Amino acid sequence: MNLRRVVVTGLGALTPLGNTVPEYERNLLIGVSGAAPITKFDAEKFKTRFACEVKDYDPINYFDRKEARKMDPGTQYGLVACDEAIADSQMDLEKLNLDRIGVIWGSGIGGLKTFQDEVVNFSEGDGTPRFNPFFIPKMIADITAGHISIKYGFRGPNFVTVSACASATNALIDAFTYIRTGRSDVMISGGSEAAVTEAGIGGFNAMKALSERNDAPETASRPFDKDRNGFVLGEGAGAIVLEEYEHAKARGAKIYAEFLGGGMSADAHHITAPHPDGTGASLVMKSALQDANLQPEAIDYINVHGTSTPLGDISETLAIQKVFGDHAYQLNISSTKSMTGHLLGAAGAIEAIASVVALKNQTVPPTINHFTDDERFDPNLNFTFNKAQERKIDVALSNTFGFGGHNASIIFGKPKE
């Protein structure tokens, strides 16, 4: 099959670091932490009382009140990010074949707040089943893709991928595949999540997955630091317009990057813990390189999964050294989760955007909050600690790994004629 080239022509983001791509980009590169005490509910009795929330967000600024009540916050976040990405792409939808434009979205959980609120309301009632008629369509994980297609009239492929923290990356890979195999011209892809709720914080606390550094939330996410003690929960959305190269060129679109390839694998090891040897992580990076027809030496920057957990950071680093060998010491590695927290099913979307930002600016965003070296990591690896680093970046790779052993990696390159 003659595979078509796929490029990035639009970006949208609603994140703990900013509610637009320019705000997100600026704060990524100067190393801002998005962590702060939780404002969405009273977290006083929780072991973790902070998160990376979206800030200064009022749905009434984006939706009328009646419309907003029909959508879970996760869906709202996704639509806001898509609006920015589509506007950024400067597509004239009246001139395009909407049958050839689709939406593939990612979400690890779906409408968690909606589900929680409806169950609480029922349990606190008199037993009479009184549920919001929008309960089910607000809760189901696929609904964001549906809302996007309805709003814009996109009649192409439309679905949501669910693979925990790899969801948005899997969505991007599927969208990429639909375009390069000739089945679509444009795909809107990315992911959204809104899990900063009592159930979200409480559930991850019960697993002992979250940092409990309540005295200093802004320094709690510490990937690769000796004193890392869990991830920081985040929320938000990232949206990317993917387009067939000739289609984009014909309409004079600006091109941010080329989507070069993607890989997927499974750890086949444990429901939550990574494989200690990084076996699945190694496989997925090799698969992405093979799909992109690249040698390991072509990669300049890796936006790692890097959640700030004791086991995960080690296994991913072992995998990088296994795949890249001596070239690992020429790479820049960074975890932007040190700033954004972990957006679960949306993580792959905002980290793909961070990778594109790195290519655009020829600057690697930092891994902030590094205070103490961990002797278990090779000191000759460049984790881009605490400060962004300017360097030549032609190709960037982004990793996401999810509960269940789901692994996905994608590769972006500087645009070429």
Provide a brief overview of the structure:
With 417 residues, the protein is α/β, with parallel strands linked by helices. It contains 13 helices and 14 strands.
Search tags:
417 residues, alpha/beta, Peroxisomal Thiolase, Chain A, domain 1, 2 domains, 10-stranded mixed beta sheet, 13 helices, 14 strands, globular
Tally the structural domains: 2
Main sheet record: 10 strands, mixed
CATH class of the largest domain: Alpha Beta
Which structural category do the helix and sheet elements fall into?
A: alpha/beta
Shape: globular
Calculate the terminal CA-CA distance, rounded to whole Å.
21 Å
Lateral strand order in the biggest sheet: 5-4-6-7-1-8-14-13-9-10
In the CATH classification, which architecture of the largest domain applies?
3-Layer(aba) Sandwich
Which radius of gyration do the C-alpha atoms yield? 20 Å
Q: How would you characterize the overall build of this protein?
A:
The protein has 417 residues and is an alpha/beta fold. It folds into 2 domains: 245 residues, Peroxisomal Thiolase, Chain A, domain 1 (3-Layer(aba) Sandwich); 149 residues, 3-Layer(aba) Sandwich (Peroxisomal Thiolase, Chain A, domain 1), CATH 3.40.47. Strands 5-4-6-7-1-8-14-13-9-10 form a 10-stranded mixed sheet, with helices on both faces. Strands 2-3 form a two-stranded antiparallel sheet. The longest helix is centred in the first third of the chain and has 17 residues. The mean pLDDT is 97.
